[in-house]
Design goal:
Blueprint: H1 2-27, H2 31-39, E1 50-55, H3 62-73, E2 85-92, E3 105-111, E4 114-121, E5 129-130
Antiparallel strand pairs: 1-2, 2-3, 3-4, 4-5
Amino acid sequence: MKRPAAYIVAATVTAFLVFAFFGCRVLGISTTALDFLKSYGWECEPYPIEKSEVIIPDPFDLVYESYNKLQLEAGLDLRPYAGRKCMRYTYRVTNYPQKTDDEVRANVLVCGGECIGGDICTVAIDGFMHSLAGKK
């Protein structure tokens, strides 16, 4: 009788370990992205509200020239990733320091498993966008 119980415990532990290692990818959760945001002082909800594939243009257009200036403010640079496919993960920010009626979001660009850039923004028409390093 002890053997079947041991098998159940072993199966449960194995299932837990498999989820711990692979579950985040299956659910689309990027703990690396959350850690990256936290390194800049941003707290976010644990699950992305959006994720999409983006291609960083090569050469940069005017939009990406401007966006890369935000990256440079945070000590990042998208130029080495020009022409590459990346994933953009969007999270709800929970610790934005100023009161705003709009939902504040954090975008993180992930390329080859590495967080390479991002921004803090709202999607309101009169909203804002600034670097991960802080408000302009």
